[in-house]
Amino acid sequence: MSGFDPDSFFTLHADLPREGPGETADVAWAAEVAQLESGARVLDAACGPGGDIGALLRAAATGHVTALDSHAPFIAAAATRFGHHGRVSLQVGDMAAVTGPYDLIWCAGAVYFLGINAALSTWRKALADGGVIAFSEPCFFVDDPSEDARAFWDGYAAQSAGGIAVQIAAAGYDLVATRKLSDVAWESYYRPMEARIAALRHGASRELASVLDEGAAEISRWRQHRAETGYLLCVVRPK
After folding, report:
1. DSSP secondary structure letters along 6-68
2. Which of 119, 127, 135, 146 is the S-S candidate for 107 at Cβ 3.0 to 4.6 Å?
3. Among candidates 180, 226, 208, 232, which has minimal Cα distance to 8?
């Protein structure tokens, strides 16, 4: 993102319920595939404002969720909903430095900050015996995606489902199952963002207006090219 202004970016994102696409059905599906036990120890890596914490608590009905993000205001936002919950721990920290042990590491739309190989290799030591990782990764769903679909990921080298599977295997993991994130998952992220953009338009500074324009363009581009690209949710287990 050229001319990136972090203050304006976080002004846009500060009040959003999610920091990326997702829906409760994604968590429920991953828990079922992983045969997650009721008392599971779960890490929500790069949790943002806590959009998935409630679903993770339901998936591990007597377990514990540790929600981690490097951006302190996101943890503060999560604390307004879950700060006094007895089965939730909220931490400001680096998802590349987690210890565990965890029965499930959940990472919605943030593995690309580390890369698949680095993330899976780093998190292996934080998994309990039999533990799994569930993460969503940018993916092309067609053989020849358009230039606009490629540009949607702003320079990130998104791949096909087959390419993602190759990286998972190279990191020493078995791919248990995959699920394409639905339009509902994306709109759960984008519709609140659209409302936030509209609310911030009046009186916006030049820097903020630029961020709002980029946010609106991102939403429009995904809606135009959602058949070509999106997130692939993967559940993986060490070999």
Report:
1. HHHHHHHHTT-S-SS---HHHHHHHHHHHT--TT-EEEEET-TTTTTHHHHHHHSTTSEEEEE
2. 135
3. 208
First-to-last CA distance in the chain? 37
At 212, list the tokens: 């709002």
Beta strands in 165-220 (DSSP E): 173-180
- 211-216-220 Cα angle (round to 5): 145
Return the H-helix or E-strand segment holding 219: helix 206-225
CATH number of domain containing 50: 3.40.50.150
Taking the C-alpha atoms of 31, 33, 39 and 45 in order, what is their torsion angle to the nearest 10 degrees? -50
Strand, coil or helix: what is 101?
coil
Number of domains into which the chain is organized: 1
Domain that holds residue 91: 21-181+229-238
- pLDDT tens per residue, range 111-166: 999 999 999 999 999 999 999 999 999 999 999 999 999 999 988 889 999 999 99
190: in domain: no
